[in-house]
């Protein structure tokens, strides 16, 4: 880590800030605001999407949809074939 020491006499030799520095700072701030606002606008658009715009995913050959939690899972997680429920829901129902 480099540390630069400035004597009080060196302050006279420092360049004076110019108006272009202010313009650059304003441009940088505007760019940062645009970058920060864009994700918020995208989130608003996503939340305004109607359910018709979202297509449900169907289960594949080696998957099933749990009738309790409605998650699509691998057939290895099928605990009760008669009720088509996963291990987690089976254990939860058993404990209750």
β content, as a range? 5-15%
Q: Care to count the β-strands?
A: 4
The number of distinct helices, counting runs of at least 4 residues, comes to 2
Helix content: 25-40%
Strand neighbour order, sheet with most strands: 1-2
Radius of gyration: 30 Å
Mean pLDDT: 76
Shape: elongated
Class inferred from helices and paired strands: alpha+beta
Helices and strands, in order, run as HEEEEH
- Spans of at least 5 consecutive residues whose pLDDT stays below 50 are none
- What's the story with the biggest beta sheet? 2 strands, antiparallel
First and last CA, distance: 61 Å
Explain the overall architecture:
- By secondary structure, the protein is of the alpha+beta class.
- It has a domain at 66-96.
- Helices cover 40% and strands 11% of the residues.
- It has two helices and four strands.
- The protein has helices spanning 19-47, 87-95, and strands at 63-65, 72-74, 78-80, 85-86.
- Strands 1-2 form a two-stranded antiparallel sheet.
- The chain is elongated and about 75 Å long.
- The model has no long low-confidence stretch (mean pLDDT 76).
């Amino acid at each position: 880590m480099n540390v630069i020491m400035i004597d009080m006499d060196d302050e006279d030799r420092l360049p004076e800030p110019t108006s272009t520095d202010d313009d650059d700072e304003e441009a940088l701030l505007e760019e940062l605001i645009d970058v920060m606002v864009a994700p918020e606008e995208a989130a608003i658009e996503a939340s305004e999407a109607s359910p018709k715009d979202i297509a449900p995913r169907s289960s594949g050959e080696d998957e099933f949809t749990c009738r309790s939690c409605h998650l699509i899972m691998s057939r290895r997680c099928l605990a009760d074939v008669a009720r088509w429920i996963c291990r987690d829901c089976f254990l939860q129902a058993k404990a209750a």
